[in-house]
Amino acid sequence: MLFGLRLLFISCCQNPSFYSVQLSCVVIKVKHLEMSQERKEDDESQAQELPVKFNFIPESITSPFIDIFPGQNEGMVRGEPGGFVFSREYGRRANEIYQFKPRKDDAWVCTFSKSGTTWTQELVWLIVNGCDTEKAKQIPLQMRSPYLEGDYLISPEKMPQEIRECWALESLDKRPSPRVIKSHLPFNLLPPQLLDTSKVVYVARNPKDVIVSNYHHFKLFKFHDFKGTLEDFANYSMDGQIYYSPYFPHVLDAWSKRHHPNVLFLFYEEMKQDLRAVVERVAAHLNQTVTEEQMVRVLEYLSFKNLASTEAAGKEKVKEMGIMNEDAGTFFRKGKTGDWKNHFSPELNERIDKWIQDNLAGSDLKFVMELDKQD
Ligand code: A3P
Question: Does the active-site annotation cover 184?
């Protein structure tokens, strides 16, 4: 600023005819500076403090926990109040996410992990992008729809550069509208203005299938590298000791907000049962219309078979990045309801039923544990 004024002074002395134009430029610039300063102060005075404190969990880097989750060698944090468990990197930077600015024309996909997030992101992205299935096929979903806290899963040095580039918070901030943002964080850790600003689609899935799907996910990704049995994993899930847990407060809080005009609450099971109806509801929620020709293309694109084939096509790239264990299955695994029946012993199933019953006591939230008919 001072440098600019000095230049102006010199040019006025040399050529007085520039004076009035230059002066008005400076007045505008100073005014602009004052206004952005005021806006900044306004933003700062409106900034709310993160209502949760995160503490490192020492047992998360000692035996037996670390033997069973060797990929999580940076340890975990727990937030209070609420008991939310996540990576140590998130614990350091949770406030950055809380202060992130949602936009009016954003569409957010919020879920507990393994509830059909990817499927819903694809759907929401298509709806806000004129059902452009060709573009969707060309650009990987991770680039089209960033993962809000994805850059916080592990420390930055360990995160592949290309993932950092599309998920770093600064790059999300610079993305053109409309943005389709994914997050697994519970609402109380997301920016407090979110629901009054942006459209949100929340998806819930029955907790039994979530446990099974998450078990395979934790085996697949190297930054978890889960080595235990399914029963171990179910116990850790019920005890609220895995990333993004506890499950019930996450889902119940979203359920309590389902009547908010900016929230559309969906179930994975209803997407399986009648995807066309869900596409229509999502389009209406996002103030868009879908023609019959578009609907046919969208349904085809969203089929399990098609989405799984895109994963297969990008396999080499993922291998190169070194984030997944080879021979530990695929991300698009089965895409069914009721797969838990193939995994739970009667004793484990009984304990899980009790866990569900205890946590849903007094709530009108009900899950469909398996559809009678599914493709
Ligand atoms: P399974 O592991 O039970 O197969 P998220 O995206 O939240 O991680 O959820 C992943 C789960 O959604 C996986 O469940 C995956 O197979 C399932 N899924 C993804 N696309 C799907 C589709 N088109 N139809 C049915 N299920 C789908």
Answer: yes
pLDDT at 34: 52
DSSP character string of 125-157 = HHHHTTT-HHHHHHS-HHHHS-BTTGGGSS-GG
Q: 161 alpha carbon to ligand 1 midpoint, in Å?
A: 26
- Closest residue by Cα to atom 5, ligand 1, is 114
d(CA 70, CA 8): 63
**Tally of CB atoms within 10 A around 149:** 24
Give the DSSP H/E element, type plus range, for residue 34.
helix 19-46
Q: Which residues pair with 199 in a beta bridge?
A: 107
Going by the DSSP 8-state scheme, the letter that residue 112 receives in this structure is S
pLDDT in tens, 283-336: 999 999 999 999 999 999 999 999 999 887 777 777 778 888 988 898 999 999
20 to 11, 15, 251: CA distances (angstroms): 12, 11, 62
| End-to-end Cα spacing for the chain | 66
Mean pLDDT of 212-222: 96
Q: Which atom of ligand 1 is nearest to the CA of 203?
A: 7
Mean pLDDT within 171-197: 97
Mean pLDDT along residues 194-212: 98
What does the alpha-carbon distance between residue 122 and residue 270 come to, in Å, rounded to a whole number?
A: 16
85 secondary structure, DSSP code = E
pLDDT at 54 over 60: yes
- For 67, 150, 337, the CA distances from 228, given in Å and listed in that order, are 9, 24, 23
Distance CA 361, CA 11 (A): 77
pLDDT band of 16, cuts 50, 70, 90 = very low
* Active-site hit among 184, 224, 285, 343: 184
